[in-house]
Design a protein that fits this description.
With 419 residues, the chain is mainly α. It contains 15 helices and 7 strands. The protein has a 3-stranded mixed β-sheet, with no helix packed on it. Strand 3 and strand 4 form a beta hairpin. The N terminus is likely disordered.
Length: 419
């Protein structure tokens, strides 16, 4: 089968007309099309160009200045019994220009270069991630809204609503659908792990500072390596495992020197970090086939409402009728409503900007930015909440971050060696 004059940049090759079978061996664009070969043409691009096709539904070819064109067939019987022969004449179809060349620049939009756009996305990513951490800490520890499960449920509802708007209304990404019950239950399982991780993370903010929370969160690669071995029996190189030693050693230093150390807060934060690592391993294991793979935005669209439904009975059982308490608190002033709505909106922006920064940066840049983000969040939280820190605690955090960097480099080298 030969594919002729494909414009892969914009449109995939699809047989929108009946396939053609070559009646004789010919040379087309330097390629040999053997006799009897079936040829598919990208008729979406070619067949809609009046300079090329006069009538794309007809079968016969004739030479025309500047290219080839179709001529009227005489009868349906003639078309059925004909054996059209590919001509060696080719059509010069210019390549599709890049997006910035296709869209005419106008006004302020013309000064937005790709570098500036990427910088704005990275800044938004930092602001949303740090903002949701600080707002969660303020709500749970300072404002007196001590309901982390209900708060997480609000986050999930927000993600479900905004994801629907982003995919159906704004069409940021194409909509994908759940194709089977098996895929549904896989996503449900991921939603349960997702719930557990986020609830534990929010709960930990009631008991430990944001800076310590971020230090513990930096140990995610350690738990990822453990779960990858336990679940998939995947062994890493000795260099990768050695790089995990400073990751663990740094958090031990931070824990021993944390002035506001709380055992329960520490344990639930470790559980949150482990849950995040478990989700990444299980997601790579469950949604591996091309038919079941979902874009991150589509996966969030399905996971978020499932997570909200899973959390509803838990929050009612553990925290009571929080909705009634919230309405009662709002009767004295709408500040709590604006605070919760803003918090839930930023929680969705964390996921949106994470998708955008992944799209606009390389894997290495994303890794570096992620490590720096944890450090920036820790510094900003100390400046705002004035929680005490020690030199040993800061050293431990730095050792953990350096261990993560070494781990990433070791993983990269092991992948290159495996190839």
């Amino acid at each position: 089968m030969a594919t002729v004059k494909e414009t892969f940049r914009m449109h995939p090759a699809v047989p929108l007309l009946l396939p053609r079978r070559a009646g004789a061996s010919v040379e087309v664009g330097g390629y040999t099309v053997p006799e009897g070969a079936q040829v598919f043409v990208n008729v979406w691009a070619i067949g809609r160009d009046p300079a090329v096709w006069e009538n794309p539904n007809e079968w016969f070819w004739r030479e025309k200045s500047g290219g080839i064109a179709m001529v009227e067939a005489q009868t349906w019987a003639t078309r059925r019994m004909s054996n059209p022969r590919l001509e060696s004449t080719t059509v010069d179809i210019p390549s599709t220009p890049p997006g910035d060349a296709r869209v005419p620049a106008a006004g302020a939009a013309s000064v937005t270069s790709p570098a500036v756009l990427t910088a704005l996305i990275v800044v938004s990513w930092y602001l949303s991630n740090i903002g949701v951490l600080l707002l969660n800490k303020y709500l749970l520890s300072y404002y007196g809204f001590r309901y982390p499960i209900f708060l997480t449920m609000l986050h999930m509802i927000s993600c479900a609503v905004y994801s629907y708007v982003a995919i159906h209304g704004l069409e940021l990404v194409p909509r994908q659908y759940i194709l089977s019950r098996r895929q549904f239950f896989k996503i449900l399982g991921l939603s349960a792990i997702f719930c557990f991780s986020v609830v534990c993370g929010n709960t930990s903010l009631r008991y430990i500072p944001v800076s310590f929370n971020q230090a513990i969160g930096a140990t995610t690669p350690f738990f990822t390596a453990i779960f990858a071995f336990l679940i998939t029996f995947k062994r890493e190189t000795a260099e990768v495992y050695l790089a995990l030693i400073p990751v663990v050693f740094g958090i031990v230093l931070s824990s021993n020197s944390e002035p506001l150390f709380n055992l329960f807060g520490f344990l639930v934060c470790v559980s949150s970090t482990a849950g995040r690592a478990l989700k990444s391993v299980v997601q790579g294991l469950l949604l591996t086939s091309e038919a079941e793979k979902l874009h991150s935005m589509n996966l969030l669209l399905y996971m978020a409402p499932m997570a909200a439904l899973l959390l509803l009975p838990v929050t009612l059982y553990v925290e009571g009728n929080v909705a009634a308490l919230t309405v009662e608190k709002a009767s004295s002033g709408p500040f709590i409503i604006f605070l919760l709505l803003g918090n839930a909106t930023i929680a969705y922006l964390v996921n949106l900007t994470n998708f955008l920064v992944t799209k606009h940066t390389s894997a290495l840049t994303l890794q570096v930015l992620g490590n720096a983000k944890a450090a920036v969040a820790a510094v900003v939280s100390v400046l705002i909440f004035r929680n005490p820190v020690t030199a040993m605690g800061m050293t431990g955090f730095a050792v953990t971050v350096m261990g993560v960097v070494l781990y990433s480099e070791a993983k990269k080298r092991s992948k290159v060696a495996a190839r």
